[in-house]
Amino acid sequence: MKRKTYRSRERVIREKQSQIVPPEMELVKVLGKGTYGSVELFSHKQNDGSLLYNAVKIMDSENYGSIDQEFRILSELRGCPCIVQLCGNSLVQGTDCNGGKVYKMSMEYAAAGTLTNFIQRNRTKLSDSVIKDFTRMILQGLVSIHSHGYVHCDLKPDNILLFPIYDKETWNCSYELKISDFGISTRAGDKSDCWRIDEPWVGTSIYMSPESVRDGTTVEKTLDLWSLGCIVLEMYTGKRPWLGFDKHVKSLLLDNKAPEIPETVPCDARLFLEKCFARKSEERGTASELLLHPFLIRDEKMGSAAAAGERTGMDSNSRSGHPQELSKLD
């Protein structure tokens, strides 16, 4: 049945591909390469002469199922806040340099790179307000994902993209965060095809929850909330969770351990992290409930203006719209 479905969708792809990739599109550079494909940056001129950039994920025919699933999920999430957006209405079939069949998915380009890039640039210098803003945006994305019945399953800084928003008068920059990479996302309550006995993880081990090791067959929305806790902790410390214990993560989780929260983490953030790291998954609540956690409640004195990230002066290349950062494909 799947093969018939794939062939049917391939015909649609060939019929519609001219709608997605204009003939004047030019390759700018390769943004990242992974085991199953790559992400490349393309540009094309608009009617006013300005350049528009798109990130294009490319996978070979053997991995059609993964990119097709990701495309369908992102299609359902069109217009949702804090979710990377598609450019076009279908996948595009093409060929690689060796003549092999590939499939392409065009998306909006995150000129400021990933949250991983941002953390590495700033180390432990992220302010409490920036971390709260970023956490809030990630949760808003999770609310959208979970409300459509999906679990992301691989939430980590590498899969969170930063889109710069700058003031044209002052060139001060803030950021909008968007969740990307839905290649292994799964319906809540369904079995994951990624789980293996020798690798009992749905996604990336150091961001996975205890139940993903104990159960290993079905996934629930609370898995993403544990991963969120790992990301928030990483923003505070500048270090990956379980650093130095990477090879022992499975046994630590089976022993009901959670990543250590340093004393330097503020009290309200500590309480938020402890909620995310609750051993009983049902005690983590929901993404909507975590948005109302005291850690994320804005100080009324700040007003309603959206901070949306650290504000910094942009360089001349950013002002001209030239892409500055590399996106990463895992």
TrEMBL record:
SMART domains named in the record = S_TKc
User: Per the UniProt entry, what is one GO biological process?
Assistant: signal transduction
Q: Which GO terms describe its molecular function?
A: ATP binding; protein kinase activity
Q: Please give the PROSITE patterns that the UniProt record associates with this protein.
A: PROTEIN_KINASE_DOM (PS50011), PROTEIN_KINASE_ST (PS00108)
TM annotation in the entry: none
Region Disordered, annotated ranges: 304-330
The UniProt record lists the Protein kinase domain at 25-296
Looking up Pfam families in the UniProt record yields:
Pkinase (PF00069)
**Name of the protein in question:** Protein kinase domain-containing protein
